[in-house]
Structure formats: C-alpha cells, structure tokens
Amino acid sequence: MATGTVKTYHSNHGYGVITPDDGGPELTVYYDSIIDAPGHVLTDGQKVEYDLTVQEFREVAERVRTVD
C-alpha cells in the first residue's frame, strides 16, 4: 500500500486530493473509496494509506485507510 497526506477534502462534494509520500502526482479520492474514516470523511493534513488504481486514464486512490 502507498501512503500520503490529504491535501484537501470536500465532504459536501464527496471527493478530495491526496499528495503521495513518494512525490508522485496528486491523486483524487472519492467518498466511496474511504473505508475506515467515520462518515467516510477525511480531514486536511491527515495521513492515509491507499491502493493506486487507474480510472478513465488517471490514477485515483482506492481502499483508503487512515494511518495513526
């Protein structure tokens, strides 16, 4: 699993952006990909781990879990 930091998350729109720790391009994370955060909501600056998937020719974060 890859790790990163939540750059921003818009709970009213159900998506956000993760900055990968490995310095790769920023990734989109969608509400339904968050599996352990209360209410499927992330907070800015939160550390997460995720699987990388390609959807419609772009990389997105899937199976996102918070890291303590």
From TrEMBL:
Task: Return the InterPro entries for the record.
Answer: Cold_shock_CspA, CSD, CSP_DNA-bd, NA-bd_OB-fold
The superkingdom listed in its UniProt entry is Bacteria
Record-linked SMART domains: CSP
Q: Determine if tRNA processing is one of this entry's keywords.
A: no
Question: What keywords were assigned to this record?
Answer: Cytoplasm
Domain CSD: where? 1-66
What is the annotated localization of this protein?
Answer: Cytoplasm
Which SUPFAM superfamilies does this chain map to?
A: Nucleic acid-binding proteins (SSF50249)
Specify where it is mainly localized: cytoplasm
| Keyword Cytoplasm belongs to the record | yes
Offer one Pfam family short name for this entry.
CSD
Q: What is this protein called?
A: Cold-shock protein
Q: Taxonomic classification, please?
A: Bacteria, Bacillati, Actinomycetota, Actinomycetes, Kitasatosporales
